[in-house]
Amino acid sequence: MLKSKTFVKKTRAGGVMKIVREHYLRDDIWCGSDICTECKHECAVLQRDPFIESNLCSYLHYVIPDTNVVLHQIDVLENPVICNVIILQTVLQEVRHRSAPVYKRLKDIIHEKEKHFYTFTNEHHKETFIEREPGESANDRNDRAIRVAAKWYSQHLEKSRAEADGPKVVLLTNDQGNKRKAEESGLLVYRCEEYIKSLIANPELVDCLALSNDDKNDITSSKMIFPEHLPLSRIQAGIKSGTFLQGTFRASRDNYLEASVFVQGEGEDSTEVLIQGLQNLNRAVYQDLVAVQLLPRNQWVAPSSIVLQDEGAAKDDNEEDKDEEAESLRMSAAESARKPTGKVVGIIKRNWRPYCGMLNPSQIKESTRHLFTPADRRIPRIRIETRQASTLAGHRIMVAMDGWPRHSRYPNGHFVRSLGNAGDKETEQEVLLLEHDVPHQAFTQAVLSFLPKMPWVITPEEMARREDLRHLTVCSVDPPGCTDIDDALHCRDLDNGNLEVGVHIADVSHFIRPGNAMDIEAANRGTTVYLCGKRIDMVPELLSSNLCSLRSNVERLAFSCIWEMNHKAEIIKTRFTKSVINSKASLTYAEAQMMIDTTKNDDVTKSLRGLNKLAKILKKQRIKKGALTLSSLEVRFHIDSETHDPIDLQTKELMETNSMVEEFMLLANISVAQKIFDEFPDCALLRKHPAPPPSNYDILLKASKSKGVEIHTDSAKALADSLDVARVDGFPYFNTLLRILATRCMMQAVYFCSGMDSDFLHYGLASPIYTHFTSPIRRYADIIVHRLLAVAVGADSTYPDLMDKQKQAALSNNLNYRHKMSQYAQRASVAFHTQLFFKSRGILNEDGFVLFVRKNAIIVLIPKFGLEGTVFFDAKDKAGPALVFDEEGPTLKVEQHTFRLFDKVKVTISLDASNIQHQKIRMSLIEPVIAGVSVPPPDVEPQAKKPKLDR
Questions:
Q1: pTM, entire model
Q2: Is 512 helix (H, G, I), strand (E, B) or coil?
Q3: CATH of 355-428 among 2.40.50.700, 3.40.190.10, 3.30.200.20, 2.130.10.10
Q4: How far apart, in Å, are the Cα atoms of 321 and each of 48, 154, 327, 452, 822?
Q5: What residues contact 226, with CB distance under 8 A and at least 6 apart?
Q6: Fewest CB within 10 angstroms: 285, 706, 820, 942, which?
Q7: H helix or E strand, kind and range, residue 872
Q8: 8 A C-beta contact, residue 801 and residue 788
Q9: pLDDT per position as a tens digit, 821-830
Q10: Which residues pair with 313 in a beta bridge?
Q11: Neighbours of 163 (CB within 10 A)
């Protein structure tokens, strides 16, 4: 049956356009129940068994939740106890429109066979579709559509209820008006909370209930702590008039009374507004989109240099806060460098997610209200209600926020699930992945269905489409233990006296075709995440470690970038081709270095020597153009094969072969970037590294000046040249420290679509254009670049999304986010394993250098372990030493000793496990010796017994 609606619309030109909208209705849409005797179907979703046991509904029943129940109680719906649920098309469409994260979670539930969730397309069933009545709001129409569908289900299953245990339909809604109208229609209807509380099988499910609007005001107070948030209409008008600014709220890790709001402007015209004090923060949470109002200029303050964390007992609107807050503001106001300061006047969009952390059980016996402390220090503590406090003690749990009343110091939330014992390696790794939003679930069957069938071979047809390069002496050079080998190289002499150099990259795009489930999953994951001792793959292991891995002595599909070069490393000719290769060796950096250094003269060794010679010339050319050579200390853990604990920790050693591989990967990325931009100027996926604003270099300039060295930051070349000659007599580590500090001054490199930007420069590489092509096994950006290049050289066909610059820009945003979160996850993994390493080693004393100076502390770098830690000088329980901080230096005078950047110190290193959730490496000063501040070194063996080491 076809329903059509015709209306006319006036065009901009003044004409009249006739529009016809058609809506197809059917009478053969089945109800999904295996008990139904009316519908003809092959595979029922709604089952007789299992069914939910309820004190309210002691009979077999199906549940129909309305839209708000799905949006707010998705944690409950995900619980294994909840099954036999009908999700109406009306609800699914509303959820999709109102919350993309909840919609994805709902779709995942629907796809779980064990859950028995059935989607009923009520909007296309002729007996359940309804038109919107005159004067009826869209929301009221949708509520009525849900009631109509529930009524139809009830009547439709009436005949099946001739059986003693025939199914009934229960509508769940928290809307009082909707509930009243449903009852008037004769429907069985309950509030979500009263239904969940009636469940026999899982009483703790009540803890997962999100608070309703009525519940949020349950905790009352005679006094309001926070100002009222302005309505959205006033906020929008204020932003339009310039009274308010819109930006992303970024809470401080070190000071819970301080945050900043990043206001994006036109081009580089962006602002950061400082927010200080509970009232000015006004219930904003990290990553919320907020509206801020600037305070008068005479109320502007400088960021506090004091570490101040909300670690005390629960405080509810008492006077203690005022003193603490005033002290924080006084300390800030004394600073000279004031910043634009404001207050949050409203929330434009909440960006809440489930948070990992631990429960702080209430001191009141029998209490069900407790505080939850998130693992992320930027998130405020959350008040939840649970009856499982004793069970959850010492566990990592997940909690979701529901709201933040004006009269409560803390937001309200609800328990989601337990993750396991705190400190357990598996639990902590799960927390790490959840907190950094790393997709790490097993690949679904839908994704795996697109893997090639094994045994896999290259077909004659595929071979005919590719260039056969199996005869070349190709080899790969990677870190030890690498199984996802996505690049290999070769170098050989040509008859004309030039050299042929090839970079061969795994042809992942051959296996992952646009738009299928595997492609969608890879695009969402964005990148492979490397943790200590674990890898979260972007693509299934069959591809990442087998069919796409360029292992030695097997035939593999590749995308090759081949140059003809002269002996000065000047490129004569470049070509790109899909190929078949057979790597002759899979080497580690150390093995390749040994081959180069020996007198061997086999084909692989000759190829490596040729590559290494050219790479040195290429690097010199890059540096001459102004490319930066920066430094960051990376550590490698040696893991015990049985316990999986770290047994040794050392900084990574870089060899010539590391640089050799890097140079040719960079050259391939630059060559491919130019090619895809020439062919597709509007939709090429590129990567840029913006030049840092001058203010970023302040700390670097102060550090160099303190040692009498001049650093120029006018351009990347000026910076590179001045870093090259920066030396201090008797201080060989000075240059490395400067380069580490210079790295901290840099901006983040980002992916972008060429049609949406005009600034392509990669500042760090001093390259006018750049992209990522060389790691498609572990980066989705490279897969897109492969597809663009394949179209450019006629090796594959295009598809609409590839040529859509808006879609490419949206994809770039996701890839940038995933890349950033993967970096954070990797750092957190290193931090956790560092804690494990020091856990069993007691107290160690090591030499270090002052990297930063703060108002009440120094941050020390330990080169031996690539470790940073903070030495605090203020005492919590007693009067601390006399401290004088000079921001201009920056210097910190502790008693009679003054600390400057790059000063050499000796510290003790130990693990502070007093707070099980926030365990940290603690450092205490040994040298210089300051009375009342320094600690004696831990007991060590007499010096005579120690072997002397050559340094």
A1: 0.83
A2: coil
A3: 2.40.50.700
A4: 57, 56, 10, 62, 37
A5: 278, 279, 282, 283, 406
A6: 942
A7: strand 867-872
A8: no
A9: 999 999 889 8
A10: none
A11: 12
